[in-house]
Write a structure and sequence with these properties.
4 helices, alpha+beta, OB fold (Dihydrolipoamide Acetyltransferase, E2P), 326 residues
Length: 326
């Protein structure tokens, strides 16, 4: 089913002096005005267009790229105030209306606002609202996983850090002590799911969780080597001391040394952490009891490796450009 407010690849079925008609299936024939059509467009071509309603409420197509589509959030500039509401620039010739009733606070021309695009129930037109909270439901099910790459829009700041909209669907939090760059309201940025809490709330990160952990373990390992394999810090040390020595938060440090410990690269003691020497990891060779107590016992020679077996054989039994119909 084809809907207003989205983009589709449609078939050109008729050419007229003022444009081309496209087959929009359930919406019928939709006009693509001549000013938005490629010069070499002809009947039988396919072309990707965005669909919206013109001033008379008729479906119309355009090759202009909107800054957002229905069901998405966007940070848009107000360009005009009227008796009906405020119009925003969203990349099309026809501006986007925010009715007065959908303004979180009165909008001013020249200022930008974070809004959500939806279809008006009365006339089916695309409109926007700056009352974004009512379009984000924290109770809505989701399948986000730790480490997943996502698209974020910075939407608010709190005592903890920054609230961000994840993939136009859910709230997430970026903690300020983990953000090492300047963020601004309405900013689009790539991020990662850091942790999904038991209550389904979402913690975010601007760095890949796995890459960050590897980077932190490298920091600890290099520092240990520079200090001859020992440092008087561990997982219960003061966070300020850890930060001064490694430039890491205590939580990041604990994860790093935990990873190194599991790999048997370090040992963690009450006095600190130290590198494990390779010889400490090699089991001692058993010795045979000497028949002559005056002579040292000879080490048992290593067992000969089993003869190699011959392996079994393996058997092998632009988006906007038009396209011609197949």
């Amino acid at each position: 089913m084809i809907n207003i407010g989205s983009s589709y690849e449609l078939d050109v079925i008729k050419a007229v002096s003022f444009g081309f008609y496209l087959d929009a299936e359930n919406l019928g024939e939709v006009l693509l005005p001549i000013k938005h059509a490629p010069r070499d467009l002809s009947v039988g071509d396919y072309i990707v267009v965005f669909l919206y309603l013109d001033s008379e409420g008729r479906p119309v197509a355009t090759t202009q790229i909107p800054k957002a589509r229905v069901g998405e959030f966007a940070y848009l500039e107000a360009v005009a105030n009227t008796d009906f509401g405020t119009f925003l620039d969203w990349g099309l010739d026809k501006d986007l209306l925010v009715p007065f009733a959908e303004q979180h606070r009165p909008m001013e021309v020249g200022h930008s606002y974070l809004v959500y695009l939806y279809l008006d129930k009365n006339d089916g037109r695309i409109v926007a609202s700056s009352k974004i909270d009512k379009f984000l439901d924290d109770e809505k099910p989701h399948d986000f996983k730790s480490g997943q790459a996502v698209n974020l829009i910075i939407a608010n700041s709190t005592d903890l850090g920054f609230k961000a909209i994840i993939n136009h669907s859910h709230w997430g939090v970026l903690y300020k002590d983990e953000v090492h760059q300047r963020l601004s309201f309405g900013q689009y940025i790539k991020g990662f799911i850091k942790y999904v809490r038991p209550d389904r709330r979402i913690d975010l990160s601007l760095q890949d969780v796995n890459e960050t952990r590897e980077k932190n373990t490298d920091i600890v390992l290099r520092k240990l080597k520079s200090e001859h394999g020992f440092m008087p810090v561990h997982d219960k040390s003061d966070p300020q001391v850890i930060s001064e020595l490694f430039g890491l938060s205590k939580a990041a440090f604990k994860k790093a040394i935990g990873s190194l410990y599991k790999q048997r690269i370090i040992v963690i003691g009450k006095d600190g952490i130290r590198l494990v020497e390779a010889s400490d990891l090699e089991p001692a060779r058993p010795v045979t009891k000497s028949a002559n107590p005056g002579k040292p016992a000879k080490p048992t020679p290593p067992a000969k490796p089993a003869p190699a077996t011959k392996p079994a054989p393996v058997t092998t039994d632009s988006i906007w450009n038009k396209k011609k119909k197949p």
